[in-house]
From TrEMBL:
This is 3',5'-cyclic AMP phosphodiesterase CpdA. It comes from the Bacteria. Keywords: Hydrolase, Iron, Metal-binding. Belongs to the cyclic nucleotide phosphodiesterase class-III family. One of its GO terms (molecular function) is metal ion binding. PANTHER family: CYCLIC NUCLEOTIDE PHOSPHODIESTERASE CBUA0032-RELATED, PHOSPHOHYDROLASE. InterPro entries: Calcineurin-like_PHP, CNP_phosphodiesterase-III, GpdQ/CpdA-like, Metallo-depent_PP-like. Residues 3-183 form the Calcineurin-like phosphoesterase domain. Signal peptide: none annotated.
Length: 237
C-alpha cells in the first residue's frame, strides 16, 4: 500500500498571501510527512518563475519524505532547473521518473514556454511511452487534458489524443494526476481516473457557485494492493 499527498498551484511570489496559504498546507503536512511515501507537487510552484520564489519553495518543502515536482505554466524551466535541480539553464522539458514502493511516478512537463495552455512535446510522449512498464504507475503533469467546464478549459492541455494513445498501451497506469484548475475534481481520461488536485493559492469556483474564496486544499492518495486508488481531499483552515 502506498500513501502520498498531492499539492498544486502554490504560486509562491514571496508575498504574504501566497506564503501564508502555502504554510497552512505544509504545517498540516509536516507532522504526517514521516508516514507518507511521497509528496507530489503538480506545478505552478512559483508565480513568476523567479529564483527567489523557488528558494522559498525549497525551504518550505524540506520534508522527511521524497518530494516529486513538475512545472506548470507559471514556472520557468531554466530557473526551475538551476534552483531546484542544480542543473544548467535549459528550456528542454523537465520530465522525471521516480520509483517509490514498487510504483512508478512519471512526471511530464506539460508547460509551453511563454504560454498558459499545455501540450506534451513529442519527445515527452516518447519518453513517457518508454518509462511506463507493466507495473503500477501514475502519469502526473500540470494541465488537465480534458474539459472541466470552467474558464480553465481555454488553457487546458491540448493534443490529448496523443497522450490517450500512449496510456492505452500501458494497462498498469492506475490514474492520471494533475493540477492547474485550482479546484478538487475527479473525472476520467483514457479509461483511467483523472484526479485534479485543489489549488493552494486560490480556488476556482464553477459558474453556478458564488465567488467567495475557499481555504487552501490538498489531496491524500492511497493506492492499495489491488491497485485501487482512493483519494481524500482536505481543506486546511
Ligand atoms: Fe495555477
Ligand atoms: Fe496553471
Amino acid at each position: 500500500m502506498l500513501t502520498f499527498a498531492q499539492l498544486s498551484d502554490l504560486h509562491l511570489d514571496n508575498g504574504p498571501r501566497a506564503t501564508a496559504r502555502a504554510r497552512q498546507v505544509v504545517d498540516y503536512l509536516r507532522p504526517l510527512a514521516g508516514e507518507l511515501d511521497a509528496v507530489l507537487v503538480t506545478g505552478d510552484l512559483a508565480d513568476h518563475g523567479l529564483a527567489e520564489e523557488y528558494k522559498e519553495l525549497a525551504d518550505l518543502l524540506d520534508l522527511p519524505c521524497p518530494v516529486l515536482m513538475t512545472p506548470g505554466n507559471h514556472d520557468d524551466r531554466a530557473v526551475y532547473r538551476q534552483v531546484l535541480l542544480g542543473q544548467a539553464a535549459s528550456q528542454e522539458p523537465i520530465n522525471s521518473v521516480h520509483d517509490i514502493g514498487g510504483v512508478r511516478f512519471a512526471l511530464c512537463d506539460s508547460s509551453i514556454p511563454g504560454r498558459d495552455d499545455g501540450w506534451l512535446a513529442d519527445e515527452t510522449l516518447a519518453w513517457l511511452d518508454s518509462v511506463l512498464g507493466d507495473g503500477p504507475s501514475f502519469v502526473c503533469f500540470h494541465h488537465p487534458p480534458v474539459l472541466l467546464h470552467s474558464w480553465v478549459d481555454g488553457i487546458r492541455q491540448f493534443g490529448a489524443e496523443r497522450l490517450e494513445a500512449v496510456i492505452a498501451r500501458h494497462p498498469g497506469v492506475v490514474a492520471v494526476l494533475c493540477g492547474h484548475a485550482h479546484t478538487a475534481g475527479a473525472t476520467t481520461f483514457a479509461g483511467r481516473p483523472l484526479v485534479v488536485c485543489p489549488g493552494v493559492v486560490s480556488t476556482l469556483v464553477l459558474p453556478v457557485e458564488d465567488k467567495r474564496e475557499h481555504a487552501p486544499g490538498l489531496a491524500l492518495h492511497v493506492l492499495d494492493d489491488e491497485r485501487r486508488l482512493t483519494t481524500f481531499y482536505r481543506t486546511v483552515v
